[in-house]
Amino acid sequence: MSEHVSLILEEQTLPGSTRKSLKRSWKQLSRCQRNLIISAILALFITCFMFLPQSKPEEEELIEKLTKKHSLETPEFQNSQKNNEIPREPESDGSNEPEEKIQIRPEEKALPPVESQLRVSIEGKKFSGPGNLRQKAVVEAFQHSWKGYKEFAWGHDNFKPISKTFYDWFALGLTIVDSLDTLYIMNLEKEFLEARDWIDKYLLFNQNRNVNLFEVTIRVLGGLLSTFHLSGDEMFLRKAVDLGNRLLPCFNSPSGIPYSDVNLKQMIAQSPTWLPDSSTSEVTTLQLEFRDLSRACSNSSFENAASAVNTLIHNLEKHDGLVPIFINTKTGKFRNFATVTLGARGDSYYEYLVKQWIQTGKTPEDDLIEDYKTSIDGVLKNLVRKTSDHHYTFIGELINGKDFKPKMDHLTCYLPGTLLLGHKNGMPESHLKLANELMETCLQTYFVQPTGLAPEISYFTEEGNSNMPDIYVKAADSHNLLRPEFIESLYYFYAITGNKTYQDWGWKIFESFIQYTRVENGFTSIGNVQNPSDTRPRDMMESFWLGETLKYFYLLFSDDRKEIDLDKFVFNTEAHPLPILN
Ligand SMILES: *[C@@H]1O[C@H](CO)[C@@H](O)[C@H](O)[C@H]1NC(C)=O
Ligand SMILES: *[C@@H]1O[C@H](CO)[C@@H](O)[C@H](O)[C@H]1NC(C)=O
Q: Which one of 170, 282, 426, 430 is most buried, counting C-beta atoms within 10 A?
């Protein structure tokens, strides 16, 4: 193939005398070679044509207005640079981040050649791309993030958009894997094909390092499986099966409660020495993915291993259906006096109870859904309180399993959406009421902040104490990591009710993200949502910004609220849609 490229180049650069020899060379080629060259030129034309910009200029005005306004040069950014702020360690919603930097093999920097992209045919479900201005603005934000990632962090886990470098956590190209189905849903063909090519060639799991079972399951296994289902491309399934096999050793613990970490090459699982227990939400947030993997590849090993954990947890004693956030892999028992929360390390236990029930066809009297109903009653009885002035409903935590603390993680704002999804599938009216009340509270955690962005953790002033505002923030918690949970809830509310108010609220929040988190090469988490003139950018773009937050924004703004049909798909906790089984 390289032969014909040089021929074409010669034609363009050499004087007329060589034209004849060129013609002669052409005649000397076999018919097969000539056909090859002609097809290659045709393919090149078609590709160029396909990717011509399609939006009309006036439609782009709004997007431009949104995006040009706040780039790296905003004064708040310059200030924080001048202050020589010490960059903080990146955060994530899990833990166990490895300290060391990983050297990515140099060849991974190379972008895939065009030929390999042309060979891929996209099958499966079709998406038509953005249908209105708001969706276009989300796609623009996505492409802006993708461009920076591709230029400076390609193949690495997370992009640091200000220092234009990267952060590797598991060295599994997390941003690419998490983005696959978003790219597919947004109908970004060029980007999807370059991501697909990277997965095919460079996402190799025989790496001699420990990774976190939960994080890799929800992001990597979930991302591969949902992209397999949406696109019909079996390469993604082959990768998922390889990964699934390497994760299985986690389940070989004395109790059957999985270890939190596994070495993907040696296939040896363990708990980190500093934390002998596993997180409750982590061991109970694998089942959607492992079940789907089993059904997709017709091997029940994965589903069986993960479902056994359901049974173990179901049989443990709980406090009104509520679970402590740590569980021991040796004894299989909850840690005494561990915190009870619907935030970090507790949240998705409750989420996967109802979602697994939906995934498996809503069997009545199912243990999972009974546990779910019990737990929501437990939440109403033990964790729900009202604020002093506006009587906002919030969910607190039980510290040491008993002392109420009026504190709610942003993570908990997935709950209104999940409660509404449950109600749509037959859960009681009390769930709908709580969903609506929490929707309002979570919205206020955004709207009361001068930036319009919610902090990582909000505190509430309970009824009877009126010397503090209803919602307040502690300095250590005032960061925003570009998290998706509330956008996810807005999406469910819109998709289930069709009420456009939720789109309008989402748009306001989207504008705030554009205004305060967009930088020249991407989007960054910020250190302070309380001061618009000193947001303290943190130089980190987590993979869930592309995998979850922007996906939910895109689906929230869709004119077709069944763009992903909630009767056919259930989203895993990382926003990767998996099919509901018949
Ligand atoms: C299913 O997967 C398990 C785990 O990798 C493997 O041991 C087993 O041989 C597989 N079964 C079949 C029928 O392929
Ligand atoms: C839409 O939702 C908003 C906010 O919950 C509510 O105030 C409004 O009445 C709803 N509109 C309709 C038509 O139901």
A: 282
Is 60 exceeded by the pLDDT of residue 366? yes
pLDDT at 235 over 90: yes
Length of the chain: 582
* pTM beyond cutoff 0.85: no
* DSSP states of 246-270: HHGGGG-SSSSSPPSEEETTTTEEE
Sheet holding 210-212, edge to edge: 210-212, 261-263, 268-270
Residue nearest to atom 5 of ligand 1 (CA): 245
The tokens for 547 are 């995998």
Q: What is the dihedral of CA 484, 51, 65, 80, to 10 degrees?
A: 60
Closest ligand 2 atom to 440 CA = 5
| Residue 452, SS3 per DSSP | coil
Round to whole Å and give the CA distance between 185 and 126. 8
Q: At what angle do helices 347-359 and 287-297 cross, to 10 degrees?
A: 30
Q: Give the separation between CA 199 and CA 220, rounded to whole angstroms.
A: 11
Answer yes or no: 347 catalytic: yes
- Residue 367 catalytic? no
Distant-in-sequence, close-in-space partners of 278: CB < 8 Å, separation ≥ 6: 257, 258, 259, 260, 271, 326, 327, 328, 329
For ligand 2, atom 10: residue with the closest CA: 499
* 428 vs 38 pLDDT, higher one: 428
**What is the rounded CA–CA span in Å between residue 281 and residue 84?**
38
Q: Is 485 a catalytic residue?
A: yes
What's the 351 CA to ligand 2 centre distance in angstroms? 25
Q: Count Cα atoms within 13 angstroms, Cβ side, for 483.
A: 25
548 is catalytic: no
Q: Is 499 in the pocket of ligand 2 (CB under 6 A)?
A: yes
Asked whether residue 86 carries a pLDDT value surpassing 60, the answer given is no
Q: 407 forms bridges with which residues in the sheet?
A: 459
Atom of ligand 2 nearest to the CA of 500: 1
Which residues lie below 8 Å from residue 8, measured CB to CB, with a gap of 6+? none
| Ligand 2 in reach of 533 Cβ (< 6 A) | no
Nearest to 535 by CA among 77, 68, 69: 77
**What is the per-residue pLDDT for 274?**
81
Question: Distance between the two ends of the chain, CA-based, in angstroms?
Answer: 48
Please name every residue paired with 577 in a beta bridge, in sequence order, or none if there are none: 571
Give pLDDT tens digits for 449-498.
999 999 999 999 998 887 899 999 999 999 999 999 999 999 999 999 99
Q: Could you tell me the CA-to-CA distances from 194 to 159, 177, 232, 239, 248 in Å, in that order?
A: 17, 12, 17, 17, 30
- Atom index in ligand 1 nearest the CA of residue 299 equals 1
Question: Of the residues 140, 215, 282, 470, which is catalytic?
Answer: 215
**Pocket flag, ligand 2, residue 440 (CB < 6 Å):** no
Please tell me the distance from the alpha carbon of residue 373 to that of residue 202, in angstroms, as a whole number: 44
Does any ligand 2 atom lie closer than 6 A to the CB of residue 501? yes
- Position 293: which residue type? L
Q: Which residue has the tokens 């200000």?
A: 162
Q: How far apart are CA 159 and CA 103, in angstroms?
A: 15
What is the whole-number distance in angstroms between the Cα of residue 299 and the centre of ligand 1?
6
What's the 305 CA to ligand 1 centre distance in angstroms?
12
pLDDT of res. 14: 35
Among 70-74, 376-380, 576-580, which stretch is predicted with the lowest mean pLDDT? Answer: 70-74
